[in-house]
Automatic annotation (TrEMBL):
Residues 626-637 have a biased composition (Basic and acidic residues). The chain crosses the membrane at residues 305-326. It comes from Halomonas saccharevitans. GO terms for molecular function: ATP binding; phosphorelay sensor kinase activity. It is found in: Cell inner membrane. This is C4-dicarboxylate transport sensor protein DctB. Residues 407-620 form the Histidine kinase domain. Residues 336-398 form a coiled coil. It is a multi-pass membrane protein. The keyword Transferase applies.
Length: 637
């Protein structure tokens, strides 16, 4: 089905919107996942940071009391009162014992000038004994009567340490007395860092100078958080806190600075450079430090990708399902539309068909009625025709009868007159007693009555009715019968009759009376036509055949004018004067022959004159035959 322009527009829009929607959904999902993962990460990092910071504070604060405790020891005071006069060894041992018990790095005693008098590491090659620490803040704070704290790189050990110090007074009672010495406890920070190494996150401890003093990663230790200017480096070196460490830049970059939720942190170089970190910091006010935790943002990125891919996949499935659903819906709609169209077309075709059938039926009914009417008319016409024909035949018979009557009148008058004359003569001869002569006249009278009987028999014959069914009819017998009717006329007019037919009798399938009637008609016409002919000659021909038998009546009269040839079979066509002919003979004859399944034609005879030809089927073996009439039979009938 062709898609509508609107449908195409919608589809194009969908093609644009679907990827846009996908991108939006994936972006949204990744943002959500990012926020969630970040929040989780932040919480975890915060917890860890808090625990680590508290752990560090706890670790250091544990030793807070120790310098003061040792400073108050009699043995320490005693030794400090006269160091040169005493052996330091007992004190050294005491300090070492305390060191081992408290688990600190070093414990040592400074005199008023900051020189180390006794130390727990008296037995080590790099012992503090003899070293002067007057430059250290812990000495300065303690000598001025306050407990001191300090962190820094050990001058001897180059280890990072946290220092706790307390003043030692020889005389406790005078509140204004200056301190006589300083007791120092040094705690190493490496052990704390060792614990951090097990954690996932990186931990940094940054001091007030932005120097990373402690770090879970060794390479980050003693690095400047941000690159130092030369001036500030010089200043820091002067404090000797970091000994002569170069304090190189840590490489940390702050990618953004949302301190409330944490900073995004990266590394410019080093093993941590390949990922970004979430940085959270927590102040350690007791130490003037802040602890920073760096948690890798890789899980956040992973969660982001995972969520985006999941949502993308889900989106794909939904879009695919939607597409398939839509496609199926469209197909179903198209199928329904197609079926509806088909239904409408069928209904239209059916209506059209019905209309056509109705129209045809109407036409047929009309035609049928017309045909019935025509058939009825035809039947009536045929009936009228038959009636007319019968009437015509009857009329023709009457006409022939009239002719015959005229002839018969002539035929009978003569013998009647003769009979009268013979009778008068016989009567006269009887009176005179001339018996012989009387007998002779009576014999003449008998002969004449015979002739009269014959004429009357012929008349009776003519009025006979024809049979209904065709039968086998002998053609020569029919000719003989017709000739007998015209016997006297033939004799008077001196017409030569030639019978031209084979020896064997020829039979046709016809009606005896009707065929005789036709032959009488044809012969009568021929005789009439030859009335003025000097040597009249009538030829009667029979030509038998397998299919057809030809019966010809030929005369040598004037013949039929060419312009009349087409008309002579029409009823009432005649060239004869009124009283001599009705013009019905040939038309009736033609009709009779036609009814018998044959044909009647006319043309010119080869030697001039007219030739009429009757064609009829020969009689078959199944046809019943009719006895030909004999002269004797008719005469005595
Ligand atoms: P009718 O004899 O009463 O005129 P027919 O139908 O028998 O009527 O003949 C029609 C016409 O055919 C005749 O008037 C005549 O002109 C012509 N006709 C028929 N027979 C012959 C014939 N043997 N010779 C010449 N003309 C003929």
């Amino acid at each position: 089905m062709p898609t509508s322009p609107r449908g195409r527009g919608v589809r194009r829009l969908l093609w644009v919107l679907a990827p846009l929607g996908l991108a939006l959904a994936m972006w949204q999902a990744s943002q959500l996942a990012r926020d969630q993962a970040l929040e989780q990460l932040r919480q975890d990092a915060e917890n860890e940071l808090r625990l680590s910071a508290e752990g560090l504070v706890g670790h250091l604060s544990r030793h807070d009391y120790l310098p003061e405790l040792l400073a108050s020891r009699e043995m320490v005071k005693r030794f400090l009162a006269a160091p040169d006069a005493q052996d330091a060894m007992p004190l050294n041992r005491l300090l070492d014992r305390f060191r081992a018990t408290a688990g600190v790095s070093d414990i040592y005693l400074l005199d008023r000038e900051g020189d180390t008098l006794a130390a727990s590491n008296w037995h080590r090659p790099r012992t503090f004994i003899g070293q002067n620490y007057a430059f250290r803040r812990y000495y300065q704070e303690a000598i001025s009567g306050r407990p001191g704290r300090f962190y820094g790189l050990g001058v001897q050990s180059r280890e990072r340490g946290y220092y706790f110090s307390a003043p030692v007074w020889l005389e406790d009672t005078d509140p204004d007395a200056t301190a006589d010495g300083v007791m120092v406890v040094k705690v190493l920070l490496d052990t704390v860092e060792a614990g951090w190494a097990e954690q996932d996150a990186e931990l940094l401890v940054i001091d007030g100078d932005d120097i990373i003093f402690m770090a879970s990663r060794p390479e980050l230790r003693m690095k400047a958080l941000r690159p130092l200017s030369d001036a500030s480096r010089e200043a820091l070196l002067a404090t000797r806190r970091y000994a002569d460490e170069p304090l190189a830049a840590s490489g940390i970059t702050f990618l953004d600075s949302r301190e409330d939720v944490g900073q995004r942190i990266g590394f410019q170089h080093g093993p941590l450079a390949d990922t970004e970190y979430l940085g959270l910091s927590r102040a350690m006010p007791a130490f003037g430090w802040r602890m920073q935790i760096l948690t890798s943002l890789a899980p956040v990125t992973r969660a982001q990708w995972l969520a985006a891919l999941l949502v993308g996949g889900l989106y794909g499935v939904v879009v695919l399902a939607g597409g398939i659903g839509w496609q199926r819906l469209r197909l179903r709609r198209e199928r329904e539309q197609f079926a509806e169209r088909e239904r409408r077309t069928l209904a239209r075709a059916r209506d059209e068909l019905e209309r056509n059938v109705q129209r045809r039926t109407r036409d047929l009914v009309e035609t049928n009625e017309r045909l019935s009417g025509e058939i009825e008319e035809r039947r009536l016409a045929e009936e009228r025709l038959r009636q007319t024909r019968d009437e015509l035949i009857q009329a023709a018979k009457l006409a022939v009868l009239g002719q015959l009557a005229a002839g018969i009148n002539h035929e009978l008058n003569q013998p009647l007159a003769a009979i009268r004359a013979y009778a008068e003569n016989a009567s006269a001869f009887l009176e005179r007693g001339r018996t012989e002569a009387t007998r002779g006249n009576l014999a003449q009278i008998i002969e004449l009555t015979d002739r009269m009987a014959e004429i009357s028999a012929q008349l009776r014959q003519f009025s006979r009715k024809s049979g209904d069914r065709p039968t086998g009819v002998s053609v020569p017998a029919c000719f003989d019968y017709a000739l007998r009717l015209f016997q006297s006329r033939l004799r008077e007019s001196g017409v030569a009759v030639e019978r031209d037919w084979p020896e064997a009798e020829t039979w046709v399938r016809a009606d005896l009376v009707r065929l005789e009637q036709v032959l009488v008609n044809l012969i009568g016409n021929a005789l009439q036509a030859m009335s003025q002919t000097p040597a009249p000659e009538l030829r009667l021909i029979i030509e038998p055949g397998e299919e057809r038998v030809r019966i010809r009546v030929v005369d040598n009269g004037p013949g039929i004018a060419a312009e009349h040839l087409g008309q002579i079979f029409e009823p009432f066509f005649t060239t004869k004067s009124p009283g001599n002919g009705l013009g019905l003979g040939l038309s009736i004859s033609a009709r009779i022959i036609d009814d018998l399944g044959g044909e009647l034609t006319a043309d010119r005879a080869p030697g001039g004159g007219a030739r009429f030809t009757i064609t009829l089927p020969p009689a078959s073996g199944t046809d019943t035959t009719v006895e030909p009439r004999t002269k004797e039979h008719d005469t005595h009938a």
